[in-house]
Amino acid sequence: MSAGEQIDSLRLATAGSVDDGKSTLVGRLLHDTKSVLADQLEAVHRVSTARGLAEPDLSLLVDGLRAEREQGITIDVAYRYFATPRRSFVLADTPGHVQYTRNTVTGASTAQLAILLVDARRGVVEQTRRHAAVVALLGVPRLVLAVNKIDLIDYDEAAFRTISAEFAAHAAALGYASDAVVSIPVSALVGDNVVTASTRTPWYAGPTLLDHLETVPVAPDPHDVPFRFAVQYVIRPRTAEHPDYRGYAGQVAAGVIRPGDEVSVQPAGLRSRVTRIDTSDGPLDEAVAGRSVTLLLADELDIGRGDLISDVAEAPQAVTEIDTTVCWLAEKPLRPGARVLVKHGARTTQAVVSELVVRFDEQRLVSVAAPEELRLNEIGRVSLRTADPLPVDDYAISRRTGALLIIDPAEGNTLAAGLVGVPLRALQETADAAEPAVPGLRDEPVTGAEHADRATASR
Amino acid sequence: MNTAPTTGTTAEPETVHARAATPNRTLSGLDTLESEAIHVFREVAGEFDRPVVLFSGGKDSTVLVHLARKAFWPAPVPFALLHVDTGHNFPEVIEFRDRLVAEHGLRLEVAHVQDWIDDGRLTERPDGTRNPLQTVPLLDSIAEQRFDAVFGGGRRDEERARAKERIFSLRNAFGQWEPRRQRPELWNLYNGRHRPGEHVRVFPLSNWTELDVWNYIEREGIELPSIYYAHRREVHLRDGMLLAAGPWGGPRADEEVVERLIRYRTVGDGSCTGAVESSASTVAEVIAEVAASRLTERGATRADDRMSEAAMEDRKREGYF
To answer: pLDDT digit string (tens) for A287-316?
Structure first.
């Protein structure tokens, strides 16, 4: 086995307001970990010189689309890759504009850690609180606050402590334990505490950003929760060699499975026993969350794509009424009675949004009862009524089997991220004391600068 | 290979219900990537009517085919392979392509760029390079054969415009990619819905880096065309690249031909695929070289990607990979 096979990987997401220097920070991480190679760097130097800049603009390493380079903005989630001898990293770099909350949701959905950026001169702003709430809602286990541009406030310890304390209080309100949140004073432009420890912050004894990313425990997919496995595909070779082979292919979504384990199959409620866990490299003694395998069962059952194989003792209940928190990602607002498609695991079914229960103001952590509609980038709680029963779990317990996609049946666009239940305790508590909505009143205007999903406004 | 690798990390409970998990149950980075790619293959097989895998005989598409075989084992891969052949391929690569297809009982369809040139649907470029000419035969083949999902070996680490690419990438009826129209991609729930005439490009290797690919090739013992490893070849220097003579043309009068010990980091149209001087003759030596390399693979060896800062973005919009 080579060294490259041994190391683990961490998936992380970045979020920050416009102009907090996120592209520069990511560029700095890539540059200082030697993940930027000579030809890319040469291109950056060439363009920087052509623009008359004194220093190479590291944000050029990551702002990939021509429109972005021309306008100096980032318009979509970009994925970056860097590695050190200790760990490899997949970084979802998400833009910080208000109207791009959808990108924060996207990046956070697979992240094990989120880096939030603030400008040391401005401290924790509304967007920081919004981004932290979205990241918490999506169940990202760990947070890092990068207090950037620390050079512009003369490496002032008191200012850093104030920002750090304010953020810690907000993270605690969102349900984060104190050891899951770290604040680091950095200058992405100059390089302080990103990869190299700064001599200009002697009052800071903590790790550099990269040290922290390399050593923070990787939160594994949960193994000690009940077993869940969505059947994606039924493998039936019908060859001379395997005339009667019938395997259920999928990826373990939660828990662990071993040969001999009793399982139940939802939504039909059938029972059987796992006889073998197959891979093309041979059978496995056990399969853990995240691994793609093929299960063979003791009984001849009618099982197909979309069914869920699960732990017998703690099988999920297949339901058609689902209390769901949604992050609305489409330009077309959501109104009660909307007909949608819902994808859960490997099953897609028709559904109706029967009720808009509340709209959350995730920045102030309060909620408004019975809103008329949910608009782009708003988060709320809805009741879904599905045509087929879905064996869902609470998102707070299982990020994979508690997640839903909400899709436009006509256009095919993804309209919303759905999270079963209300995963954010802070929001749940205020939902019970929600104020009725005042029609037309919003805390902030929703800009129409969203170009992603051109949904039809009316039918 | 079937033992869960130990990573030495202390597992953290991700949920309120999780007790401390066993440390050695964390999948390694490579296992995570493999499982993710297999999941993508099965998702497409379950949701699409006519998927096809683009296969050129290069290292990324060879890894792609390896993963497809793993995803459906012991059943055969339930879709065909498609090669858009520029006619400017290295003979070693074509030989390898045909042998791999025969060995594993796969179905290969070839769209020859030459046919499009012969009947006037395409015109040869003055510079002789045929990589950009692949787009039309690809889109024609997709339309003619009604492919609704097209697997490619594209990776997001290859180039800045690709960093924005989704694993499921919707293309309109003209095969075009619109960066602002990409759907948000959440968790591992992929949305493959499309209207008649549209198709979805699918990139199972999205999260792999060049080094991941080579580490996987080593771990799985995947065979590649011989030109990926060091060999002696007559080359000539053009635009800072070492090019080999072939049906696509040879050295100009003012270009000196020299014999060098070289290998290829990417395999494309021979007119614009440069070699690198290398003595790496085994996978392990290639890994060591890639890890130490100071040039990204495309920047070092592919003239077509150096055309302009926005070259790749423009070509993706046209329907290129």
So the answer is: 999 999 999 999 999 999 999 999 999 999
**Residues A127-182 pLDDT 10s:** 888 889 889 999 999 999 999 999 999 999 999 999 999 999 999 999 999 999 99
Residue B9 in any domain: the answer is no
User: Both B195 and B249 in a single domain?
Assistant: no
- Per-residue confidence (pLDDT) for residue A53, from 0 to 100: 81
Residues 165-184 of A with CB under 8 A from B: none
Token pair listed for B107: 């179905």
Minimal Cβ distance to B28: which of A7, A279, A452: A7
Q: Does A270 touch chain B (CB under 8 A)?
A: no
Chain A residues within 8 A of B14 when measuring between CB atoms: 139, 141, 219-222, 399
Q: What CA–CA distance (Å, rounded) separates A107 from A410?
A: 26
Which residues of chain B neighbour A62 with C-beta distances below 8 Å?
A: 160, 163
Q: How many CB atoms lie within 10 A of CB A294?
A: 30
A 313-332: CB under 8 A from B = 329
Q: Note whether residue B4 is domain-resident.
A: no
Give the domain extent around B249.
Answer: 226-306
Tokens of A267: 């939504």
Are B154 and B245 members of one domain? no
Instruction: For residue B6, tell me if it sits in a domain.
Output: no
Q: What tokens appear for A168 in the block? A: 């810690």
Confirm or reject contact between A1 and chain B (CB < 8 A).
Answer: yes
Please report the pLDDT score of residue A360 as a whole number.
86
Residues of chain A with pLDDT > 70: what percent?
84
- Based on the domain organization, do B135 and B271 belong to the same domain? no
Same domain, B151 and B292: no
Nearest CA in chain A to B77: A237
Q: Are residues B118 and B241 in the same domain?
A: no
Position A355 confidence tier, pLDDT thresholds 50, 70, 90: very high
Interacting residues of A25 by C-beta distance below 8 A, sequence separation 6+ = A14, A115, A117, A146, A148, A186, A188, A194
Average pLDDT taken over every residue of chain A: 86
Distance, CA of B155 to CA of B204 (rounded, Å): 8
Residue B192 lies in a domain: yes
Among chain B residues, the shortest Cα distance to A60 is held by B160
Distances (CA, A) of A162 to A30, A157, A430: 29, 9, 27
- Per residue in B207-237, pLDDT (tens digit) is 999 889 999 999 999 999 999 999 999 999 8
- Name all domains of chain A by residue range, CATH numbers in brackets: 9-220 (3.40.50.300), 228-311 (2.40.30.10), 318-427 (2.40.30.10)
Query: Which A-chain residues 279-298 have CB contacts (< 8 A) with chain B?
Result: 279-282, 284, 288, 290-292, 294
